[in-house]
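Journal club side-thread
Mid-discussion, someone asked how the predicted structure for our own chain would compare to the paper's figures. Pasting it here so we can look after the session.
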Amino acid sequence: MRTKKAVYGFGLICGVILFAASLTPSLIPRTYMVQGVLSGIAFAAGYLLGMVLQGLWRYLELPQLSLRPMRYLKWALAIASLALLVVSLYHVKAWQNSVRLAVGMEPLETGYPVYVFLVALLTFILFYVLARLLLAFGRTLSRWLYSRFPRRVSLVLGATLAVLLIVTLANGVLLKYAFQFADRTFQQYDALLEPDRPQPLIAERAGSKESRLDWQKLGRAGREFVASGPSAAQISAFTQREAMEPIRLYAGLQMADTAEARAQLLLDELIRVGAFARSALVVITPTGTGWIDPSATDGLEYLYEGDIASVALQYSYLNSPMSLVFQPESGMESAQALFRAVYGHWKTLPPGSRPKLYLHGLSLGAFNSQRSFTLFDILGDPIDGALWSGPPFPSELWRNLTNQREANTPEWLPVVEQGRFVRFMNQNGTYSGADAPWGNSRFVFLQYASDAITFFERSLFYREADWMKSPRGPDVSPLLAWYPAVSMLQVLIDMPLSDTVPLGYGHVYAPQHYLDGWLEVTGIDSFTPAEIERLKQVLLQKAQQGDGYEYRGG
């Protein structure tokens, strides 16, 4: 009994330490419910770690303290743990407010420490019960194996078989049916027709009466994309010059059975509407659900005064995280099919009479857009550039460029080759030193230091990330600190919360920052600084009013 109490006691101490660390700031503000669940998971992980370490110590027959010193040490650690628990809960409000102020949110009047503690306790109990059930299942298998194998072999085999069986069932059965259910649900949602999204009358839009792309088959995100955006009249009212109707084309998953067939339909439509006679053509890779951020596209159409065509191809009904887990290659295959179709026709045109060719993607769209081509694909006829916003952490191109950054430039805003071919931008533009003359192609990554989707790293489990070190990004709490294992868990929880912050922070990219990015990519200088500032206000007001932002599918 003493041994068990000692094990439990050391587990509780480790649990409290990880619990306290989990309350400290990360990148995104947390509600008391989210914080409680996070802290409960951290406590459970610490508790398990403590039990494993204590059991390992005894198994290795390392020296033990005598009973009296052990009793005193236990009481001292218990008091210290209780004090740490109380102090950390007391600081919840200050820690969360430091994050909220960094991302432009109003401070809290209370951190709800009691609610945080209760939710954490319930979360820990749930994990504890599940763990006990798993242990009971493993012991049952071990007892069944006793008659066939030695005792210790039976214990190892029983535990291993229990884990393998549960993992197999989870991956092979639960995940399969979860995927099928999610896919059907998102497909039904995608098919909804919005009453405030009438079929376009403009011939230059997919889904119009002149278009070969059926309005009913565009999907929810596709209908929003082609039915929104500035018209020629709106652009003219702003510039006081004659403007063209921007071309917007989109193909939903129902258009054809394969990505190649859908891409060919879009190419045929691009040719029909004269997209290759425009000044610019942008190939957009949407997010998992097919959503395209209006903040990114509207400003570009103003810059080109409508003389531009945009084309996009849906590859999934699921949101980006689910699409990445269940359909990891569908986005890349779709992006490659569309790029090859468009680029294949574009490079046959005379260089002096073909449009500027750009790429764009947000989040998973940025990830797949980067994978839509290789350097060798475009070596003979390079494209003009790309704007990729919020590139997720698995992005290989983004990661390789970031790792090749110049010395003394931060991970959250690196400088590579003095900005000759690629530049990284945030709310304040580029980092000092990225001022070399542009080359033939211009690639820009728009990223916020508070975007957990971009800056999550598995290595946070065992080492501090460079973006955590000084100097930090302007939207990161000065009180943020790295803790082994806990920091990885915090940023992991931050990822699904990254779109709950105001425009211009986290994973919510603001139109004025997109505009700065496009100005870098396109090199357009026909607008005065005053006109650019006025355009930013127009776009920001539209975003804040939700005009064209009804469906934020990620």
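Post-session note: The longest strand covers residues 356-362.
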